[in-house]
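[Archive record]
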Amino acid sequence: MLNSHSSGSDFSGNGSCDARLQKLIARLRGLTTPELNQLEQLLSDLEAKRLDSKPSGSARPISLEIRNSDSKSLDWPHAPIHRIAEAGTYFVTSGTYGKQHFFRSPTSLSALQQELLAKAKQYGWQLEAWACFSNHYHFVAHSEANATKLDVYLTHLHADTARKLNELDLK
């Protein structure tokens, strides 16, 4: 996923930027999966640094116009609105602070997964798929009729996994 926020440059209406964008897209299409993974990580790191250095509220979502193989224009929203208060199905990704590998041990990774599953049940979220790694996790979940808001579920999950990890570190 390549998320972007405007940083003062606007790709629409500028011929040299349009040409540059098309060249970059062509180069992206030639990358292997591992190379795309590395690029995605690099872009995430750059975006995090940029957003950390901006005053709150200065980033604005943009859409880029790109063309598919038929030269038809495609709208590409880079920063869709996050509506986590609404019922529905969500794909969630969350990572550790500084992308540190806090859940490297099998015990800590198991604790993360157990908390993820227990909190989902507690807050009325049906997990369809999930994957836990040493520095991040992903899940696809659907809110049940009586589900608590997603941000409440995630806040409690993160707080309890941090406490559990601290307990494991003390042992």
